Amino acid sequence: MAVKRVILVFWAAWFTIVFLTNLFDALKALGIVGEGWTFASGNWAFMVKTTAIYHLPTSAVALLFAGVLAWECLAAISMWLVVGAPCHAPDRRSAPAVYRAFAVALGLFGAFMIADEIFIAYPVEGTHLRIFVTLLVSLLAVCLLPDETDARTG
């Protein structure tokens, strides 16, 4: 499998797992799955604790968490859609889809970094920044590395 495709599959799988663990965390918070359910992120409790600085009502935190879930789902779907069509040259048809997928993912982590500042969640800001930079490096790799077919013929 080409390096570009491996990078895209990694991000698609990673965003899928992140989405699912957060979804199950939400389902735990709603009492739909039991407390013994271990495939859950723990991010709901983290968000409740983090947003407590401004005394946000649970409904506002739930709305924020739902927004994150939707954004993560969109990132996962966007990445899976480009797995079969990696970015070649900027003039190729697949490039805009790759750019869109990474824009969704980068936007999510940019939003997390802004939220980290707003909610003074500095301990996690470094993690969000590292993921943001790793996404940028991945985008550069996908767009600048030679294609598998180019490597065989070049």
Could you please describe the fold and organization of this structure?
The protein is an all-alpha fold. It is 74% helix and 0% strand. Helix 1 (3-29) packs antiparallel against helix 5 and helix 4 runs antiparallel to helix 5 (122-144). It is globular and about 55 Å long. The mean pLDDT is 92. The protein has helices at residues 3-29, 43-51, 58-82, 95-118, 122-144, 148-153. It starts with a helix and ends with a helix. It has one domain (3-147). It contains six helices and no strands.
Give a nutshell description of this structure.
With 154 residues, the protein is mostly helical. The chain contains 6 helices and no strands.
What is the topology?
Layout: H1 3-29, H2 43-51, H3 58-82, H4 95-118, H5 122-144, H6 148-153
Helix pairs in contact: 1-3, 1-5, 2-3, 3-4, 4-5
Overview features:
single chain, 154 residues, mainly alpha, 6 helices, 74% helix, globular
> Could you give the distance between the termini?
18 Å
Q: Strand count, sense and closure of the main sheet?
A: none
**Strand element count:** 0
- Please provide the ordered H/E string of secondary-structure elements: HHHHHH
> Helix proportion of residues, in percent?
over 70%
Tally of separate domains: 1
How much strand content do the residues show? under 5%
Parts with pLDDT < 50 across at least 5 consecutive residues? none
Rg, alpha carbons:
18 Å
Report the mean per-residue pLDDT as an integer: 92
Q: Which secondary-structure class do the elements indicate?
A: mainly alpha
**Global morphology:** globular
User: How many DSSP H or I helices?
Assistant: 6
